[in-house]
């Protein structure tokens, strides 16, 4: 009977320890459940934040691509403008060269006429010294009226 009582006491003691271990395990399991729930809520929150950041990133990429396309268009327009300006400058340079060539030709022609006029004036002066009545006339003055040229280039 003593053995039985000792055995029962040990069993009751073990049962009490087991119940305490079960309660501790249940408390630990409850704590783990609460931590799991907190982690799940945190994970869902982070997932939402991640999706929000992904959307923002996509919007930024779309906006960047749109700006880049706009800048490419602007660059293309500026390159076209530059090309047109260069062509226009080349055209003006050709016109200037043509006008310069016309001016040089006119300068040569003016010099030739000037020589002719000086030669005739010398002849006229030599001839007027032999005719005294013509000496009283005023000496001739010549004025040059330049011809106007238009360039069709």
Automatic annotation (TrEMBL):
PANTHER family in alphabetical order: ALPHA-INTERNEXIN (PTHR45652:SF18), GLIAL FIBRILLARY ACIDIC PROTEIN (PTHR45652)
One GO term describing the cellular component: intermediate filament
A GO MF term: structural constituent of postsynaptic intermediate filament cytoskeleton
InterPro entries: IF_conserved, IF_rod_dom, Intermediate_filament
Span list, region Disordered: 129-153
UniProt biased composition (Polar residues): 141-153
Domain of life according to the entry: Eukaryota
Family as reported in the entry's similarity comment: Belongs to the intermediate filament family.
Ranges of Low complexity composition bias in the record: 129-140
Record's keyword terms, sorted: Coiled coil, Intermediate filament
Source species: Origma solitaria
All residue ranges annotated as the IF rod domain in the record: 1-124
GO terms, biological process: intermediate filament organization
PROSITE patterns, sorted: IF_ROD_1, IF_ROD_2
Parts forming coiled coils: 43-102
Pfam families, alphabetized: Filament
This protein's name: AINX protein
